[in-house]
Amino acid sequence: MSVMSAVGGLKVGVDVVEQDQVVMISVAFLVILFSLQKYGTSKMGLVVGPALLIWFCCLAGIGIYNLIKYDSSVFRAFNPVHIYYFFKRNSINAWYALGGCILCATGSEALFADLCYFSVRSVQLTFVCLVLPCLMLGYMGQAAYLMENHADASQAFFSSVPGAAFWPVLFIANVAALIASRTMTTATFSCIKQSTALGCFPRLKIIHTSRKFMGQIYIPVLNWFLLAVCLVVVCSISSIDEIGNAYGMAELGVMMTTTILVTLIMLLIWQINIVIVIAFLVVFLGVELIFFSSVIASVGDGSWIILVFAVIMFGIMYIWNYGSKLRYETEVEQKLSMDLMRELGCNLGTIRAPGIGLLYNELVKGVPAIFGHFLTTLPAIHSMVIFVCIKYVPVPVVPQNERFLFRRVCTNSYHLFRCIARYGYKDARKENHQAFEQLLIESLEKFIRREAQERSLESDGNDDSDSEDFAGSRVVIGPNGSMYSMGVPLLSEYRDLNKPIMEMKTSSDHTNHHPFDASSDSSVSEAEQSLERELSFIHKAKESGVVYLLGHGDIRARKDSWFIKKLVINYFYAFLRKNCRRGIANLSVPQSHLMQVGMTYMV
User: For 270-279, what is each residue's pLDDT tens digit?
Assistant: First the structure.
């Protein structure tokens, strides 16, 4: 809408330009706009800042010029009694006009949607000291111009521009429109990223365009999808009024949703007096509902587009969240118990072949059910198995020496380990698999040496239950059970890993009958021999080769499930899961070292 409105100024400056030419030029501008999106906000800042400053100054200057030249009495509009007079004179038509009035205030919320790019204080100061006064002067200037030029109401702004300044203003208006459209696009990227993190949207490829700000991102698939939708809307609905109706419906939906959410925050988090909360809700939501009642009357004149789009997006988000939640809960319920692992014995009920198996899964606690599927499907399992779980932390780069967190699964003789591989949002996941394996083994060796060190300290009575060292990374357990490393709290899922490892290690030692006794030289010697044997075992397993075991868990509805559940899980969710970005898409794994096994959960 912004782009078409800006390009539509050509019809004022050039008489031969028709609406079809405006649509063609708008399409060209939109293609250029979305093609430049991948370069990030930081690289475009030198153009964005000065262009917007000039644009707002132009609005204010043109408004002041029209106020002086035509009619400065429009200042009387600040008197709210004129609202009553307006509705008294126009009755039902005044109510219909509310839908157009709301468009004067739209777009400003995009500033606050992009808080990942700017600080709160800078947004507040810019809006109050620059945006608001310039917009008010601009609108009052147009009103003053229309007092004497009623026929130019369809192109009030460009018609009110002085002749000598028309072409420069037209140029800067188009630049500002492209920038405003780009701001809305980046805000959409931020919303989709947050929805993905909450499990409410299928995974998409996200590119971080800045090492300094985590929120500056680019989503290629979404960018080209938005371009296609914009082109369809511009080409099929060339009327700016119908697009305006759809835009007004979307804006009022955002406003009402924001008011309701802020009300909940005031009650549950800020715990403000209930009387103040009710007054806030009645005033703001009441005004928004009045405007919404006007916009809803234009459903047949373009607003239906946004309603259809909202229903489709809600359906995608609900189905993805519902299916993902069912799949994760089923994986947690069906994970293998430690009692079963002990019954199987250290050979896991099968043959332990030389080598290391890296089993990738999403669980951070317990043995995933897909591992049991490996045991029942394959005649042999590797002599050492490491359950690898990849997690992202809110820092640009994770140092190599703090990449992995290890803990033991079962006793020493099982040679099973849990590994949390941590990556920052700017870390390149396309590393060489040999370098990755070497770093993994080195970190595992450090963990085993520290484990032996902690056993000896524990036997000396130097137990420290407040912190643990995992593979060279200092990890502190906070009072709320969160795990902290590098000064950054990790995901809440890590809470299950915060169980004191000393207890597990001690029980493992007793099971294997290798207690450490600092007062006994023979015990120390035996402990050192045990450590050397395990390190030697790891080196031999590494020499035999590393295999990447990738398990694909899927869900299907049971036969006795309702028809709606079967339709949602077996078709809609399956389609989304098949076409979304896999969680292991960034793994650089050679095909010769890859083994995949699928498993279906009945829900």
Answer: 999 999 999 9
| Closest to 421 in 3D by CA, of 566, 583, 286, 530 | 583
Q: What is the mean pLDDT of residues 171-182?
A: 84
Express each pLDDT in 384-411 by its tens digit.
999 988 887 877 788 888 889 998 888 8
Pick from 38, 72, 221: which is nearest to 141 by CA? 72
Tokens representing 195 are 């929805």
Contacts 24+ apart (CB under 8 A), 39-47: 39/209, 40/209, 40/210, 40/216, 40/218, 41/117, 41/186, 41/209, 41/210, 41/216, 42/209, 42/210, 42/212, 42/213, 42/216, 43/209, 44/182, 47/175, 47/179
What single letter denotes the amino acid at residue 459?
S
Average per-residue pLDDT in the chain? 79
Place of tokens 């450590």: 531
pLDDT at 243 over 60: yes
| 143-170: pLDDT as tens digits | 999 988 888 777 888 888 988 889 999 9
Exposed e or buried b per residue across 220-246, where buried means at least 16 C-beta atoms within 10 angstroms of its C-beta? eebbeebbeebbebbeeeeebebbbbb
3-state secondary structure 209-258: CCCCCCCCEECHHHHHHHHHHHHHHHHHCCCHHHHHHHHHHHHHHHHHHH
Count CA atoms within 13 Å of residue 25 on its CB side: 18
**Paired tokens of 343:** 């019954």
> Residue 107 phi/psi, 5° resolution?
95, -30
Structural domain boundaries in the chain: 2-238, 346-554
